[in-house]
Amino acid sequence: xxxxSAPVPAxxxxxxxxxxxxxxxxxxxAIDLRIEANSYCCLLGPSGCGKSTTLRMxxxxxxxTSGDILLENRNITALPAAARGxxxxxxxxxxxxxxxxxxxxxxxxxxxxxxxxxxxARAQDLLERVAMGHLAQRKPGELSGxxxxxxxxxxxxxxxxRVLLLDEPLSALDPFLRIQMRAELRHWQRELGLTFIHxxxxxxxxxxxxxxxxxxxxxxxxxxxxxHAVYNRPASEFxxxxxxxxxxxxxSAGKVAVRNDHIRLAPAGSTGWTATVSDxxxxxxYVLLGLQLDGSEPKDSAVSVMxxxxxxxxxxxxxxxxxxxxxxxxxxxxLAA
Length: 337
Ligand code: ADP
Ligand code: MG
What we know:
Layout: E1 12-22, E2 25-35, E3 40-44, H1 51-59, E4 66-71, E5 74-75, E6 86-89, H2 101-111, H3 116-129, H4 145-157, E7 163-167, H5 175-192, E8 195-200, H6 203-209, E9 212-217, E10 220-225, H7 227-232, H8 237-243, E11 246-251, E12 254-259, E13 264-267, E14 274-282, E15 286-293, H9 298-301, E16 302-308, H10 309-314, E17 322-326, E18 332-334
Parallel strand pairs: 3-8, 3-9, 6-7, 7-8
Antiparallel strand pairs: 1-2, 1-4, 4-5, 9-10, 11-12, 12-18, 13-17, 14-15, 14-17, 15-16
Adenosine-5'-diphosphate is lined by residues 21, 25, 27, 45, 47-53.
């Protein structure tokens, strides 16, 4: 086998993919999705919406109830995990602490009975590809979090997958490391030229990473698109609320979403959308105001407004102040009923 061969990314297609764990327990409900080769795809949604089940079905770690999974037009639905051309990278890297980086990466080849010289050559090649060749003899405890992630990446790549599957790989890390590690993941996806499918419940993480975001809810797909399209044109009230940064408002023309940095503040009584300031949060570049709209149902009354620090300094507001809200109609995005 050519140890230096570059990975060949593959497109993944899900056709009416369904998982029922039992009667009335549909975890994934007939989803259709195409993920382009060599793209970074994030499956995003609240806990329990079916993200991990979808990923495990793609990996072959979970049986499907119905539907098909294609990898570059090859139907892999019935294949065992090892024959699919996919590999999984686990949360917190799950490296063996007593093995060197090299032996961690070579481990699955050892299990397959590949001779020592060959498995070490292939593991060393992969460690070099993720800029870890010089640290091959270190144990995980002697490596930084970022270096450990690269060893985990090399270990996942040893089977020459065409698609890398990642289930909440960053969620156990502290916030600082999480942001650093996600930049690394994005870098390695581009550098390696593989298809990445990454599950997360964090919209911030998905927006930072994804070429394509897939927003899921109750086992179904609510919206698919690049982050800026999903953020600026949420397809539904669910997506607008889940993505955050939006206000869902009931106007005479119907329900709309308006980004919280697109709301203007005017003197009370001028627009008819009068609210009371309930919260003022200083965030550095911005000030985030929480407001309660007059005359709304409790579930609709909370509104947030993001002001630049400069604007806030010009016109400071405090809890209890009364203001009116306005927006440019062109910035109000209509939501499906
Ligand atoms: P997510 O990863 O989005 O949090 P999951 O795919 O893990 O969601 O779960 C989707 C739904 O399927 C949830 O309601 C969960 O309780 C259920 N579920 C997941 N795994 C199993 C299982 N092995 N047996 C029964 N129900 C399961
Ligand atoms: Mg999950």
